[in-house]
Amino acid sequence: MVSWRPLPGAVEAVTRLREAGFAVALVTNTTSRTRAWMASALSAAGFPVGIDDVFTAPAITGAYLARHHPGARCLLLNSGDIAEDLAGVTIIADDGPEPEADVVILGGAGPEFSYAALNRVFGCLLGGARLVAMSRTLYWRTDTGLQLDAGAFLPGLEQASGVEAVVTGKPAAAFFTTTLDALAADASATVMVGDDIQADVLGAQDHGITGVLVRTGKYRPETHRSAPGTPDRVIDSVADLPDLLGRPAGAPDGSGPENRRIPP
């Protein structure tokens, strides 16, 4: 989707995959909306998905903080209200007196990423706060074009403060592992389809998942050519995916070895 409108053929492709017997999950580093909002928007657009099919960086981040930093005071810099997906996380006020933060959470970029806000984050890091970033994504696409994301600011914060971020969204191992566990799927029997060659495709391949790069959304030929790895497959549109995959192993007319892997 671009600006929450489906790309041509996307709804039909996901519907065909469901009907063919594939388990489908939608994984995103988007931090401007909650899981519930995304599931509702996707369903309203015609996608056959519910909230349990949607996996987001904020939800993974909430689970990470509960496990590794329980009770921590967290300063959140993000464009969008995602408090619902950070249930149990203590978020301190981002204005007024500056309480000491234990953790800085860096979400998606937007107008909130002002000099003053970034400088406050810098001060918290110098004061000993840990840094948790929901992604290293450099940019994302809207209907008005490419827009800078938090990954364009993160390296500067790390270098200036000497604090290395823990990244919780794609391509972090926990993100893919959580999704695979929810699907009860093996990495070797799973395909990741995305327009971000680094976070989506190569990240998935690093964890044993087949990576398919799609030439829509934020795809740029320059980024594809300069990437440090090669996708398993490249397709022009997600509409091409059902024909590429055929049927899952074990499904009617899909038990033959020719249907157990993406053809070369």
Can you describe this structure?
The chain is an alpha/beta fold and 264 residues long. Helix content is 32%, strand content 16%. The chain contains 9 helices and 12 strands. The protein has helices at 10-20, 35-44, 57-68, 115-126, 154-161, 173-183, 197-206, 221-226, 241-245, and strands at residues 26-28, 54-56, 73-77, 90-91, 103-106, 130-133, 139-142, 145-148, 166-167, 191-194, 210-214, 233-235. The strands form 4 sheets. A 5-stranded parallel beta sheet has the order 4-3-5-6-9, covered by helices on one side. It is globular, with a radius of gyration of 19 Å. Mean pLDDT is 88; it is low at 254-264.
Properties at a glance:
12 strands; globular; alpha/beta; 264 residues; 3-stranded parallel β-sheet; 5-stranded parallel β-sheet
Helix content: 25-40%
In the sheet with the most strands, the strands line up as 4-3-5-6-9
Q: Low-confidence runs (pLDDT<50, min 5 residues)?
A: 254-264
The overall average pLDDT, rounded, is 88
Spell out the blueprint of helices and strands:
Elements: H1 10-20, E1 26-28, H2 35-44, E2 54-56, H3 57-68, E3 73-77, E4 90-91, E5 103-106, H4 115-126, E6 130-133, E7 139-142, E8 145-148, H5 154-161, E9 166-167, H6 173-183, E10 191-194, H7 197-206, E11 210-214, H8 221-226, E12 233-235, H9 241-245
